[in-house]
Amino acid sequence: MLLALDLARQQGLEDSPESWSLQLALLRNLCDHWTEPDNGLWECRNQLRYFTHSRVMVWVAFDRAIKAVEQQWLQGPVQKWRELRSKVYDEVMSRGYNVERGCFTQHYETTEVDASLLLLPTVGFLPADDPRFLGTARAVERELLRDGLVLRYRTEEMMANE
Predict the structure, then answer these.
(1) pTM score, two decimals?
(2) What digits encode the pLDDT tens for the residues 37-59?
(3) How many structural domains are present in the chain?
């Protein structure tokens, strides 16, 4: 939601006191719960996990909140958000990236990739030419590309974990 509201600001939509109040409430909730596992973008119901995409979206929320304060003169605990953004980034880089494979992984407990990892540069987490992202893109292509289409994830791996 914070990413969508940032995109709206970029298109000229101004925040109202009510909309910023809502964003602050969402951010307070995120500050309290960002360390918890979830079901991920694909809503995998077998077990709560630390999905890399979810963790990156936590980073995005704090990043866009910081940007809103810095660029739109909105008020908020920007130093706290900077610290949390940095913690999330460090966590994703240390736990969501598999050095042996040279790519990011679907979640912290696997070596598998999923299509959501292709979004990392589009949200500003890493540049598209970063070697870690390029390795991820190659792994997604190698493992998930079928007849010119990209699978969300390898279903046999997901079914094995249910």
Answers:
(1) 0.89
(2) 999 887 877 889 999 999 999 99
(3) 1
